[in-house]
Amino acid sequence: MKTIIAVIFFVTYAFAQQPSGTCRNPLTSMPNLQIEKFFKGNWFVTHIMGGSNEATCRKYETRMEGGLIKLDANGDYTFQGKKKLYTTTCSSTSGVPLNPAGPFVLKCRHTHGSENIFFDLTFSVVDTDYNNYALVYRCSTYQSLGLNHGNLVLLQQDKTADGSKATSSLRRRNLNLNQFTKTTGC
Question: Got the DSSP string for 104-162?
Fold first, then answer.
């Protein structure tokens, strides 16, 4: 009887520690990402898996600054049914070493006028050729809003690219471009 109670207690505790709605990357991250090479320049979110029909092209302006990853992305975001143009700034955390296998946790802020919404962006690079495409799993966690959403995105350095350069990478992961929604505005 004590064993059964102990098992019930342990299982209850284990599930209580797991946040509900936690994002889970379904694919293995690239083990030896060249961080400085990847986070340099612009990437466009041209395709998204698991996105809505309102999936919008985003320009990720990336750079390394003082050993930190910096990512800026401006665009329309919809929160609680209201679409607004937000300025978004993200940064990795000082003092936390960057692991080439990721994931990279960035602290972010959406700004619209005097309104600020803070969130964490977990960014896992599944594959990239550094010059044309990157297959990335991203998870946005808005603790203050109780929102947690993850999806697989195809980033490209040319916003008009059709995604064909990522075809073999997708195929190796039993995926194809038809499973993704083309974002609008790219």
Answer: EEEEEEEEETTEEEEEEEEEEEEEE-SSSEEEEEEEEEEGGGTEEEEEEEEEESSTT--
H/E element, 2: helix 2-17
At 118-161, the pLDDT tens digits run 999 999 999 999 999 999 999 999 998 888 889 999 999 999 99
> 175 is written with which tokens?
């995926």
Q: What global pTM score does this model have?
A: 0.82
DSSP structure class, residue 92: P
Please give the backbone phi and psi of residue 85, each rounded to the nearest 5 degrees, phi first: -80, 120
d(C-alpha 9, C-alpha 153), whole Å: 39
Q: Which fold has domain 2-182?
A: Lipocalin (2.40.128)
pLDDT in tens, 107-123: 999 998 898 999 999 99
Q: What angle do CA 143, 147, 150 make, to 5 degrees?
A: 115
Q: Determine the Cα–Cα distance for residues 10 and 4; give it in Å rounded to an integer.
A: 10
